[in-house]
Design a protein that fits this description.
The structure is a homodimer of 399-residue chains. Chain A has 13 helices and 16 strands. Chain A has 399 residues and is α/β, with parallel strands linked by helices.
Amino acid sequence: MKRTSRDIRTANRSLVLRHAIAASPVSRPALARATGLSQATVATLVGELLELGVLVEAGFEESGGGRPRGLVAVDAEGGALVGVDVAETYVHVEVVDLALRVLGRAHAELTPEDGDPARAARRIADAVRDATERAAAGRRVLGVGISMPGMVDREGGVSVFAANWNWHGVPLLALLAEHLPHPLHLDNPMRACVVAELWFGAARGRDDAVVVNLGTGVGAGLAFGGGPHRGASNSAGEWGHTTLVLDGRPCHCGRRGCVETYVGAPGILRTVAELDPGSALLRAGDQTAALDALAAAIERGDPTAEAALRRTAHCLGAAIGDLVNLLDPEVVVLTGWVARRLGRRLLDVVRPAVATHALPRPSAAVEILLSPIGANPVSLGAATFALEGALSPGAGAPR
Amino acid sequence: MKRTSRDIRTANRSLVLRHAIAASPVSRPALARATGLSQATVATLVGELLELGVLVEAGFEESGGGRPRGLVAVDAEGGALVGVDVAETYVHVEVVDLALRVLGRAHAELTPEDGDPARAARRIADAVRDATERAAAGRRVLGVGISMPGMVDREGGVSVFAANWNWHGVPLLALLAEHLPHPLHLDNPMRACVVAELWFGAARGRDDAVVVNLGTGVGAGLAFGGGPHRGASNSAGEWGHTTLVLDGRPCHCGRRGCVETYVGAPGILRTVAELDPGSALLRAGDQTAALDALAAAIERGDPTAEAALRRTAHCLGAAIGDLVNLLDPEVVVLTGWVARRLGRRLLDVVRPAVATHALPRPSAAVEILLSPIGANPVSLGAATFALEGALSPGAGAPR
């Protein structure tokens, strides 16, 4: 786990580029102030990013007297990046330019039969080709980032374990490389979400952030010192499988009382069933339809729906309060389809619940926010993996 | 929370010095390999540490032909550092040389009356003077690091909240400065423990570590990327106040079901009382005597003691398993007086309990160890605060 000087250079290039994307056009001294790096280091890094074709010279700044300062800007036209969100029931692809603005999308539903690894790779590659042929026409594709749920061996490009398809050790990148000629980068949705918030969302400019991802499963993307925390086996963030109730509800992971069994979509619906086994909300159709029905019932003041929201907030407040007490982050960002569906109403009950559970000092220091990223944050984050890959010394100049 | 270039320089100086302490005498290229920094950066940092009088030139390395390589070593004689562990019932002071070898100690019991802030500062200052006059004779004292339980404002030198003396906003460093002429540095015991393990203990050379401190209270010192994680308000690590049992045992913090209420010394004794309200273990005297009696009873196979150990391991296994799932550390180090007293017997039951609760991949990646630091790790860590303070650019050359 030793950081090499190459890792440090990649991290510093990313840091400078992230600030350049936020503030283009920008001078080198302004980048030095924003990043905390020395002016000499910033000058070197900017030179490398110009060489890579990611930044371009962009005229001069008014300096009110002295020598005019050169400006640099992100070269949005310098290439295209592809981000892929592989989920339980779909694959979603976004193509973005170097300023990470969306150029185009593709979406395909996946069926249980698509769980065959070779077939899954073909379906993913088809969606990537579909999106890039339409959106990236004439631009060089610098890389493809893929977010795959479950446990991921990032360096090896292997899906170590994916519960949805019962995959164990599937060499996903090797399978994809048979179809796609681009540099490929693999990681999991928690890492994608935290990278998306760090570069473009509610964690911009923050050092220490937690991105709470609420969906069918739940997890927490962690950032410390301004970068994603991956852990010793790239498994960090399995907050969904931390204990909220010792010996509580059984979890599909084989343990009991996991956070996920209370605040994941199936857990919330179980809470509804415990409150009112005959609730019409449980007959709304699939899980997504049931959550939509729950959100609508909360809006119209349905007592069971409101009780389920309060009970969920009690659990979520304790579980997020635990993250606040342990990690003392600057910001906790709520993301994922369940958070998007319940939105403001969830935030309004979770904030006081966290304040009740967390200690006063870290509670006063933290902001709890909904993700401001409108598009799919997982595919945006995955596109950022490809950008970070392209910035790695030795990856080869994209031009 | 923006890192400044000064912070980065301090961190890099610490990184180089930490490796130099571990491997003195050592060549500059070896330091570059060990730290991941470039050879040019290491050459600059070594120059600064020579200038500060912390390193000295130490001859040449056999190079089997080519130009002989210069070696540097820690200048143990270059000064003295003082580490102070302020606990609920005592103040413990250690004086160390620049290789952080112990030169001398002082110890004083504290009574509830010592909770008056001015009086506490006087008692602490007396103990520091007592130790330095005997141990540091002829050496310049480069700084004094103080570990104070509770919530600490590190930059301001203020004890924000200390439960033992019901302190709120006591300007401890300002009070101590009336008695002590040295540079003073304040932080909490969790930070002291993690710094001690990073520099001298079971987390040496690791990037991501968790130091679990088991005493009357419990907490977790966190390290990411090779340095201590402090959080947005220097409150990170309040693992003792994360939820193990939602709505469980009441905690002195006002919440319920906190980890501390199950695995802190009073929590363990409560478990004994739940198992056998008439147990002789509960009549052994104060809490320390009761834990000694428990350790002895475990050794002789007493059924209540063994049941209490198993129940504690079940709780501790779940709570440490949560840390493993969330943070995916390389190592979890058990420290604190309760861990020292129960020792090997605790480790033997905690390891399988963690394996049961943690997910397979992060569980396979983590080592669970007892702290190898024989002396008081809190005062050793506090002395390291003083060393890191002396390494900060602008702190003034210690010579």
